Amino acid sequence: MKYGIIGLTLVFVLGSSAVFLAEGEPAPPQRPRNVVKTEREWSKQLSPAQYLVTRQKHTEPAYSGKYVHNKAKGVYHCVCCEAELFSSGTKFESGTGWPSFWRPIAADSIDNEPDYSMAEPRVEVMCNNCGAHLGHVFSDGPPPTGLRFCINSLSLKFAPEAQTASPKAKAKTGSALSKAKASKEATKPKPDTKTPAPEGDKPKPEAKSPK
Ligand SMILES: [Zn+2]
Q1: What pLDDT, in 10s, does the model give residues 143-170?
Q2: Of 4, 16, 161, 207, which residue is 20 to 30 A from 183 by alpha carbon distance?
Q3: Residue 123 per-residue DSSP state
Q4: Which residues contact 132 (CB under 8 A, 6 or more apart)?
Q5: Domain 37-162 grouped into CATH 1.20.1200.10
Q6: Neighbours of 167 (CB within 10 A)
Q7: What's the 25 CA to ligand 1 centre distance in angstroms?
Q8: Closest CA relative to residue 132, chosen from 31, 41, 51, 207
């Protein structure tokens, strides 16, 4: 029932995009994001070019991005929210001028949606954590998936493998890391927690006399 209401609300909110749904298809997975910021907050945090690509769905010019020819080992994170998106192990030279991957780092790290903004329908790829526009996915990629995730460098932030602690180093700094993680968890704001309004000022309903 809860999902039914959400679905109905989405159809209402999305308006025109809902007409593209095939009959019997559920509403598009416009899932609530873990990281939600206003356009003003995003524009402050990002460079103008990063903002245009990730929040306004622009595409960087081919071969203009800094990761097109990056062959270093490591993990590509979302430039907006730092979520892990792609591993260097799945990057390949597509010859398109954009960093290309044949698989995201995890199935739930990305979200996708049909994109009808051009004559040829495409499938848009977004960061599942914050909704950032990343690029598009095509079905002309290499094995084993046959997919080509065509991603803007501007929406990515590469962390070389050397920066990732080796198991040995991890063991040494384990306690420090877990402490840091714990304090991070503790200070994490909880958007769902609402401060209850003070009751004191509210007029109290008239007391009924006992029968
Ligand atoms: Zn993100």
Answers
A1: 999 999 999 999 999 999 975 555 554 4
A2: 161
A3: E
A4: 54, 55, 78, 79, 80, 81, 126, 155
A5: no
A6: 6
A7: 26
A8: 51
Residues labelled catalytic: 150
> How is the chain split into domains, by residue range?
37-162
CA–centroid distance, 169 to ligand 1, in Å, is: 28
- In 9-165, the DSSP E strands lie at 74-78, 84-87, 91-92, 100-101, 110-115, 122-127, 133-138, 148-151, 156-160
How many angstroms is it from 105 CA to the middle of ligand 1? 13
Residue 111: predicted pLDDT: 96
CA distance readout (Å), 172 to 12, 161, 168, 184: 54, 18, 7, 20
Whether residue 83 contacts residue 105, with contact meaning beta carbons closer than 8 Å, is answered with no
Instruction: Map residue 111 onto helix, strand or coil.
Output: strand
Please give the model's pTM, rounded to 2 decimal places. Answer: 0.65
* Closest of 43, 40, 14, 35 to residue 26, by C-alpha: 14
What token pair was written down for 7? 């679905």
